[in-house]
Amino acid sequence: MSPVLIGFSVFAAGVFALIGLFAEWHYRQLPELPTQPANLPTSSVEVIVPARNEAATIERVTASLLALHYPTFLVTVIDDHSTDNTAMLAVGVGANVIRLEAEPPPGWTGKCNACDQGARRSEADWLLFTDADTYHTPDSLTCAVAYAESHHLDAISLLLRQECVGFWDRLILPLAYQNYFAVLRPSKPAFNGQYILIRRSVYNESGGFGAVRGRVMEDVALAELLADQGYKTALLNGHQVASVRMYADLSALLHGMTKTAFTAARDRGAVGWLLGSVTFIGVFVIAMFAYGVLSGQTPLIGAALLICAVNGLGLLPWLSRFGVRPTYAALNLIGIGVLWLIGMVGTFRALRGVGVRWKDRVIIETR
C-alpha cells in the first residue's frame, strides 16, 4: 500500500477516534434532569402540541400528556391545517384542539406559526412545546418545572431518548447524534425543539417563535434569541422522562435529515463542516474497500476495515443509549454513505435557494 494511502488511513482513523471521544465527552457534560424533585411545583402549565398530519402518533402523545401527574395543566393540540383526521383523534382522546384553517402567513414556517398561535391564546404560567411524535412519563412535567423553578431559569429544553424501531432508524440516528454531540458545546445556548419549557411572560417579552418565524431550525434560533436577550436557559438530558420516534419510515427520515443538512449548509458552521468532512472520509473509505475487493488488494481491505472498526467502537455507547444491537456498529460506513447523500441533497437545495419539503410543504428559510 502506498505511503499516501497509509497516511490517509491513519488520518481517517484518527478523525473517527476524535469524533467518538468528543461526542462522549460532550454528552457526559450535559446535566441530567433529576427524576426526584425536592419540591413539587404548583405553577400552571399549558402543553402545546403543534400537529400537521399526525394521525399515526397524535393519540399516543396526547394520552401520555393527559396522564401527567401535575396539579394544574392543559393539553392543547394545534391542528396545523391537517389533511387527515389528526384533530378528530386528538379530540377523541380528550385534548383541547385549536384548528388552523389556513396556511401559515408569508415568512412563517408551519411549526412556528402553530406554536405561536397556541402561546398567544394561553394564560398559563409556563408553556411546554412538545412534538406530536413524543411520549412522556407521568412525572416528566413535574420534574421539568421543578428544575426550572429551583434553578431560577427562564426556559429549559430536554434531549429525549430516541426510539429506534426500524432498520434505517438504527443505522442512521446513533451516527447522526454522535456527530451532533461531537460539535455540541454545553456552554453554548441550544434547545431541542421536541421539548421546550418556557415561562409565558418570557415568551411574550422575547417575541418567542414569532421572532424566529422563518427559521427552519427554530429551536436553535429560539435558544440564541433568549441568550442574546439575557434570559437564563439550560439544555438537559431528559432520556429518563420522555422519548421520541422521529421518523416512521425511510421517506420521513430522508426528508427530516435533509432539513437538518439544509440548515447546516446554510449556516456553514461547525456542524456543516463536520458533516461534509466526515462523510467525505467515509465515502472514500467505502471506495477504498470496494476497490480492494475488486482488485484483490488485501492491504486496502484491511485498512478500510480497521477504520470501520475505530468508527464502530465510538458508536457503541450511542447504540446502547438508543437500544440498538451492537452489531449495527459493523454497518457504520453504510450509514455514513447515506448521510453523505443526504448532505449533498441538503447542500444543493441550500445553494439553489429552493428550500426543503417537510410535512407536505416546501419550507424556504427567511431571516
Topology record:
Blueprint: H1 3-29, E1 45-51, H2 58-66, E2 73-80, H3 86-93, E3 96-100, H4 110-121, E4 126-130, E5 134-136, H5 140-150, E6 155-159, E7 161-162, H6 167-183, E8 195-199, H7 200-206, H8 218-228, E9 233-237, E10 242-244, H9 250-267, H10 270-295, H11 298-321, H12 332-352, E11 356-358, E12 361-363
Parallel strand pairs: 1-2, 1-4, 2-3, 6-9, 7-10
Antiparallel strand pairs: 4-8, 5-10, 6-8, 11-12
Helix pairs in contact: 1-6, 1-10, 1-11, 2-3, 6-11, 6-12, 9-10, 9-12, 10-11, 10-12
In the predicted model, the low-confidence regions spanning at least 5 consecutive residues are: none
- Side by side, the strands of the main sheet go 3-2-1-4-8-6-9
Instruction: Quote the CATH topology of the largest domain.
Output: Spore Coat Polysaccharide Biosynthesis Protein SpsA, Chain A
Radius of gyration over C-alpha positions, nearest whole angstrom? 21 Å
| Name of the CATH superfamily of the largest domain | Spore Coat Polysaccharide Biosynthesis Protein SpsA, Chain A
First CA to last CA: what distance?
50 Å
- CATH C-level class of the largest domain is Alpha Beta
Listing every helix as H and every strand as E from the N terminus to the C terminus, the arrangement reads: HEHEHEHEEHEEHEHHEEHHHHEE
Mean pLDDT score, rounded?
Answer: 87
What's the architecture of the largest domain, going by CATH?
Alpha-Beta Complex
Characterize the largest beta sheet: strand count, sense, and whether it forms a barrel.
7 strands, mixed
Total DSSP E strands: 12
Supply the number of structural domains.
Answer: 2
Total DSSP helices: 12
Overall 3D shape: globular
- What proportion of the residues is helical, as a percent range? 40-55%
The SS-based structural class is: alpha/beta
Give the DSSP E fraction (strand runs of 2 or more residues).
Answer: 5-15%
